[in-house]
């Protein structure tokens, strides 16, 4: 991603963090946090205390950096809150759990407007609320002296409700690979924004606020999923993690994948046509939609929202992701994909 | 804190994050992570799963920013790991809990040496290990394009072992205020480093690696502590949070405080004499030692490691922290304190 143009006026606004102070910011942000039914002790003490009726807690952390994972001129504060929460909620869902609480670490330049931070808090709260989760704690500090960028670190805690956690390592030859959720929409929206456009609105909105299929995670666990992960780095990359950890080959069925992700035709075809690309490239390599992929025993009935897109095979020559027998990266490159997975360091 | 001089050679070392890549970094760092007995699922999947035998989990997050909370030329990577863990472990202890696991979010410039990151991981692991805790998950991303600073966000999860969590809001008039741990040592060590010195070693070491009295937290809860918090912002500031949340006046006994913190004489007196200050200023306002303060009913037997340093009184004119009847800030200013609490935004 290119370096962000500064968006908010960078002279200290009257409601800047520097003016309002740490505790003022926390008070304003917490007013937007909502309440977590699972919290015995909520925000404002040394730590939160969360009920874990299952006797276990699912825990995951994601870090979003301004200029790497979001731009303030491309996404509203609310969008960024939604996106930061979604990345974590999807990770919990990918274990078969439901998020019950978030903790938020925030490093922001002192000239950051508290209204912007309130917007982030609102987005976090809105994304969590349908699951019954809320922000229960956090820390707000000043960004590095040399940096004008916000760093947002979100930790999600979740409950398994008695389910066995679904790992990446449980896929077995003969299983089917299934998909829940969208692929390629966020990458398509990013391509649109990069070129200075803001439509098709559906693609741009998908980039700003992913819509992961949270309920599909626990449903897959209940249906006997043998392995599961969320697609944050791109289908080929994340199916690769699953293949690697399970010691199997994942073979994608191109027809089924196209049917599951590109039919009926929509914004991906529209943008690909305008830019002269193939929408399947985004489906294979686009990250950040936070779809879920899972493997199921061949006789399992797939829960609602899940569609078969491939099969799991033995890996005599080592783990790999294939598209109908061909190495996935070669297929993606032939389609014009810019990379075969989300690259974090560049 | 002044802007850090760049320490590590900023041309890409052969083991830089950019060269090794995200997954290489994660593998190397995890090799240092140790194992958490409470982890049913450890690092490497979408999320960790942690056993919570108490039916609740304590959760807290702290963010450390290079140039604000640490400098690479003043602290080794291991020191920074120790310090980041300590801030969180002390927060869990201040609720009456014991940390069982950490999650770590890391934003670092691509030229960061993985050896340095391994050092941070080693420090985190070493600080956790005596409690039986370890890093169970995290996220590693590239710092903002404009920033050469590392941002470290640590979330600690802990177990209450059936104890009632000790809040900041439970202090009652008639309670005694007690202290466990050191005060002023980190601030004294920082004053030494700021002036370009590296001794007295004990003070500098205290700044680099705080030594919070973790066991004193659960012990205080067992002994019936009515309120508790850790001293991360300075005694006056954190006693102020306790006074405010409890609606009481906290009155510090100067003689008892001096006895508890400055006797027998040590590095604080030595450095204060050299710089022409009063060591009690550091005791009152120095943060980051992560001592614990707690209030106990007047008839409670204080557990080992706890010393009475004041009393809780009614607050007819509102919550306040006094030093023998005088406003704490006025006393601190008279002693030459540079500020009456850790200021995060500047």
TrEMBL record, chains A, B:
<keyword id="KW-0479">Metal-binding</keyword>
<keyword id="KW-0067">ATP-binding</keyword>
<feature type="binding site">
    <location>
        <position position="91"/>
    </location>
    <ligand>
        <name>Mg(2+) 2</name>
    </ligand>
</feature>
<dbReference type="Pfam" id="PF00586">
    <property type="entry name" value="AIRS"/>
</dbReference>
<dbReference type="GO" id="GO:0009229">
    <property type="term" value="P:thiamine diphosphate biosynthetic process"/>
</dbReference>
<feature type="domain" description="PurM-like C-terminal">
    <location>
        <begin position="172"/>
        <end position="259"/>
    </location>
</feature>
<feature type="binding site">
    <location>
        <position position="62"/>
    </location>
    <ligand>
        <name>Mg(2+) 1</name>
    </ligand>
</feature>
<dbReference type="InterPro" id="IPR006283">
    <property type="entry name" value="ThiL-like"/>
</dbReference>
<dbReference type="InterPro" id="IPR016188">
    <property type="entry name" value="PurM-like_N"/>
</dbReference>
<keyword id="KW-0460">Magnesium</keyword>
<comment type="function">
    <text>Catalyzes the ATP-dependent phosphorylation of thiamine-monophosphate (TMP) to form thiamine-pyrophosphate (TPP), the active form of vitamin B1.</text>
</comment>
<feature type="binding site">
    <location>
        <position position="62"/>
    </location>
    <ligand>
        <name>Mg(2+) 2</name>
    </ligand>
</feature>
<feature type="binding site">
    <location>
        <position position="288"/>
    </location>
    <ligand>
        <name>substrate</name>
    </ligand>
</feature>
<feature type="binding site">
    <location>
        <position position="139"/>
    </location>
    <ligand>
        <name>Mg(2+) 1</name>
    </ligand>
</feature>
<keyword id="KW-0808">Transferase</keyword>
<keyword id="KW-0784">Thiamine biosynthesis</keyword>
<feature type="binding site">
    <location>
        <begin position="138"/>
        <end position="139"/>
    </location>
    <ligand>
        <name>ATP</name>
    </ligand>
</feature>
<keyword id="KW-0547">Nucleotide-binding</keyword>
<feature type="binding site">
    <location>
        <position position="46"/>
    </location>
    <ligand>
        <name>Mg(2+) 4</name>
    </ligand>
</feature>
<dbReference type="Pfam" id="PF02769">
    <property type="entry name" value="AIRS_C"/>
</dbReference>
<feature type="binding site">
    <location>
        <position position="233"/>
    </location>
    <ligand>
        <name>Mg(2+) 5</name>
    </ligand>
</feature>
<feature type="binding site">
    <location>
        <position position="91"/>
    </location>
    <ligand>
        <name>Mg(2+) 3</name>
    </ligand>
</feature>
<feature type="binding site">
    <location>
        <position position="232"/>
    </location>
    <ligand>
        <name>ATP</name>
    </ligand>
</feature>
<comment type="pathway">
    <text>Cofactor biosynthesis; thiamine diphosphate biosynthesis; thiamine diphosphate from thiamine phosphate: step 1/1.</text>
</comment>
<feature type="domain" description="PurM-like N-terminal">
    <location>
        <begin position="44"/>
        <end position="158"/>
    </location>
</feature>
<dbReference type="GO" id="GO:0009030">
    <property type="term" value="F:thiamine-phosphate kinase activity"/>
</dbReference>
<protein>
    <recommendedName>
        <fullName>Thiamine-monophosphate kinase</fullName>
        <ecNumber>2.7.4.16</ecNumber>
    </recommendedName>
</protein>
<feature type="binding site">
    <location>
        <position position="61"/>
    </location>
    <ligand>
        <name>Mg(2+) 1</name>
    </ligand>
</feature>
<feature type="binding site">
    <location>
        <position position="91"/>
    </location>
    <ligand>
        <name>Mg(2+) 4</name>
    </ligand>
</feature>
<dbReference type="InterPro" id="IPR010918">
    <property type="entry name" value="PurM-like_C_dom"/>
</dbReference>
<feature type="binding site">
    <location>
        <position position="168"/>
    </location>
    <ligand>
        <name>ATP</name>
    </ligand>
</feature>
<feature type="binding site">
    <location>
        <position position="46"/>
    </location>
    <ligand>
        <name>Mg(2+) 3</name>
    </ligand>
</feature>
<dbReference type="InterPro" id="IPR036676">
    <property type="entry name" value="PurM-like_C_sf"/>
</dbReference>
<keyword id="KW-0418">Kinase</keyword>
<feature type="binding site">
    <location>
        <position position="69"/>
    </location>
    <ligand>
        <name>substrate</name>
    </ligand>
</feature>
<dbReference type="GO" id="GO:0005524">
    <property type="term" value="F:ATP binding"/>
</dbReference>
<dbReference type="GO" id="GO:0000287">
    <property type="term" value="F:magnesium ion binding"/>
</dbReference>
<comment type="similarity">
    <text>Belongs to the thiamine-monophosphate kinase family.</text>
</comment>
<dbReference type="GO" id="GO:0009228">
    <property type="term" value="P:thiamine biosynthetic process"/>
</dbReference>
<feature type="binding site">
    <location>
        <position position="60"/>
    </location>
    <ligand>
        <name>Mg(2+) 4</name>
    </ligand>
</feature>
<dbReference type="InterPro" id="IPR036921">
    <property type="entry name" value="PurM-like_N_sf"/>
</dbReference>
<feature type="binding site">
    <location>
        <position position="230"/>
    </location>
    <ligand>
        <name>Mg(2+) 3</name>
    </ligand>
</feature>
């Amino acid at each position: 991603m290119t370096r962000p143009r500064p968006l908010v006026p960078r002279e200290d606004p009257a409601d800047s963090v520097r003016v309002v102070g740490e505790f003022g910011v926390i008070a304003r942000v917490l007013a937007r946090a909502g309440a977590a039914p699972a919290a015995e002790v909520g925000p404002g003490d040394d730590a939160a205390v969360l009920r874990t009726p299952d006797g276990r807690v699912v825990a995951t952390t994601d870090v979003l950096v301004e200029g790497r994972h979001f731009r303030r001129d491309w996404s509203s504060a609310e969008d960024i809150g939604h996106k930061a929460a979604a990345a974590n909620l999807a990770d919990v869902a990918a274990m078969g759990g439901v998020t019950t609480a978030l903790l938020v670490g925030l490093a922001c330049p002192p000239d950051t407007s508290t209204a912007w931070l309130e917007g982030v808090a609102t987005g976090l709260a809105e994304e969590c609320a349908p699951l019954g989760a809320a922000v229960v704690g956090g820390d707000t500090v000043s960004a590095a002296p040399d940096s004008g960028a916000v760093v947002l670190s979100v930790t999600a805690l979740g409950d398994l409700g008695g389910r066995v956690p679904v790992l990446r390592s449980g896929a077995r030859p003969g299983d089917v690979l299934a998909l829940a959720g969208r692929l390629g929409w966020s990458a398509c929206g990013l391509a649109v924004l990069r070129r200075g456009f803001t439509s098709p609105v559906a693609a741009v909105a998908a980039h700003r606020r992913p819509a992961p299929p949270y309920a599909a995670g626990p449903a897959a666990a209940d249906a006997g999923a043998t392995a599961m992960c969320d697609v944050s780095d791109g289908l080929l990359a994340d199916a690769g993690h699953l293949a690697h950890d399970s010691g199997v080959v994942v073979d994608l069925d191109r027809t089924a994948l196209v049917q599951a992700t590109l039919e009926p035709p929509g914004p991906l075809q529209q943008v690909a046509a305008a830019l002269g690309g193939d929408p399947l490239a985004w489906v294979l390599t686009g990250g950040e939609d936070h779809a879920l992929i899972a493997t199921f025993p061949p006789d399992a009935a797939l829960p609602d929202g899940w569609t078969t897109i491939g099969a799991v095979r033995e890996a005599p020559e080592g783990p790999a992701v294939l598209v109908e027998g061909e190495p996935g990266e070669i297929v993606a490159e032939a389609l014009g994909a810019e990379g075969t997975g989300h690259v974090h360091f560049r």
